[in-house]
Amino acid sequence: MPETTTASSANLRATLHPERAALTQRLASLTPAQWALPSLCGRWSVEDVLAHLSTVTATERTRWPRSMVAARLDPDVHNDRRLAEQRGPTPTAATGLGLPCRRP
To answer: pTM of the full predicted structure?
Structure first.
C-alpha cells in the first residue's frame, strides 16, 4: 500500500475514533422507545440506521457487490439483508470502532 494511502487511512481512523466514541456514549443513554423512533432515513428506525452504519464496517469488500447482485441491484433488498444480520432481539449501545449493533 502506498505510504500516502496508509497515512490517509491512519488520519481517517484518528479522526473517526473520537466521533464514534461520542456516538457510542450518546447511544448508551437511549431508551427502548428512542431506539424505535423513526429516523430521517425513510422507513428506518434509529436502531436500523445504527445497524446500517455497523454493516459498513462489518462487511468485507467483496461481499457488498455480491450481495447487491444477489439482490438484483435492489438496494432495499440488499439493505434489508444486511440489517437482518446486524440486529437481534433487543437494541444495545454501540461499542468500539466497528459500532456493532448486534443484539445479545
So the answer is: 0.64
